[in-house]
Specification:
alpha+beta, N-terminal domain of MutM-like DNA repair proteins, Helicase, Ruva Protein, domain 3, 2 domains, 5-stranded antiparallel beta sheet, 5-stranded mixed beta sheet, 9 helices, 23% strand, DNA-binding
Length: 305
DNA sequence: CTAGGATCCTGTCAGC
DNA sequence: TGCTGACAGGATCCTA
């Protein structure tokens, strides 16, 4: 799950709990995604929490930074020392990232990769698959990290012209593949790529090179709009995972127009949303609203002939 | 250089 | 019930 809005939600949500607090001890599970030594972390105070694309950066007062990437199934869960299990208590608990029952179950568990012990509580880094990681870096060298240094601009930092140029350069790639490439544009994952393309009424398989500047601008607008909406609604957190009646759900229900809505009606035109495979990923779209541009142009040519 | 596919890992779900 | 294969909210590595 964790795309830019979820990582931003983690950043904002963790701040009140760990900013200016001391990590008494870090407890990594051996071989499970902690790169560094515990002595680089133990006893250090958190002085800032930043985000670059989908990477979370926790700056420490000893000159080191914890770079955390949640990848597909990572989660960060704060349990205050007075937290009561199963109780949604914003003052004592915070959970965000890949939504799962870990949000409300006892921790650490089998999926816990790293535990950060504070006097005020514990921060758990959980990951169902082992794709996520925590890496200790000198703060001064964060920008040199390969992932960070090659990261593209975030949608709101980018002009439509810039994205259009990238689309031209990768003209034969489906537009969805361009949107998923963090080196070209940072922060979009499978959900927001699909949602942005729905917003712009562009078919995910459209070769990036055939898109007009206007279409690219609309896609960029869609990325900004859908991700901002997700950040505003809290992304995937415990609050959006646990419904008021105590059952669990998915924050996607609140705003997704196409993602995981295959077989349901398009909110715009009523057609049935379809799911296919594009750029190696499950891809959702409305077959009526989102038509491949190339075929659109061909149809127009036929009409005028 | 770009484009496409395999791959890392564990869990879940659909279909026998 | 148990087995099997597909596939998953990400990114990298390898090949052509």
């Amino acid at each position: 799950m964790p795309e830019l809005p979820e990582v931003e939600t983690v950043r904002r949500g963790l701040k009140p709990f760990i900013l200016n607090k001391k990590i008494i001890q870090v407890l990594p599970e051996p071989g499970k995604g902690f790169y560094g030594t515990t002595t680089e972390v133990d006893g250090a105070k958190v002085i800032d929490i930043r985000r670059k694309g989908k990477a979370l950066l926790i700056d420490l007062d000893n000159g080191n930074t914890l770079m955390i990437h949640l990848r597909m199934t990572g989660q960060l869960i704060w349990r205050g020392k007075n937290a009561k299990l199963g109780q949604v208590d914003d003052a004592e608990q915070f959970a965000a990232g890949h939504p799962s029952k870990n949000f409300t179950s006892e921790l650490p568990n089998k999926q816990t990769r790293v535990t950060f012990v504070f006097a005020e509580g514990k921060l758990f880094f959980n990951d169902q698959r082992k794709f996520g990681f925590v890496k200790v870096l000198p703060t001064a060298e964060v920008e040199l990290d390969k992932f960070i240094s090659e990261l593209g601009k975030e949608p709101w930092e980018m002009t439509p012209e810039e994205l259009y140029t990238k689309c031209q350069r990768h003209g034969r790639s489906p537009i969805k593949a361009v949107l998923l490439n963090q080196k070209l544009i940072a922060g979009l994952g499978n959900i927001y790529a699909d949602e942005s393309l729905f917003y712009a009424s562009v078919h995910p398989a459209t070769p990036a090179g055939v898109l007009t500047e206007k279409q690219v601008a609309k896609i960029l607008e869609g990325a900004c709009t859908t991700m901002n909406a997700a950040i505003d609604s809290g992304g995937s957190t415990m609050a959006t995972y646990v419904r008021p009646d105590g059952t669990t759900g998915d924050y996607l229900e609140k705003f997704a127009q196409v993602f995981r809505r295959e077989g349901q009606k398009c909110n715009r035109c009523g057609a049935i949303i379809e799911k296919t495979r594009c750029a190696g990923r499950g891809t959702h779209y409305c077959p009526h609203c989102q038509v491949v541009s190339a075929s659109k142009m061909a149809a127009r040519a036929t009409e005028s002939a």
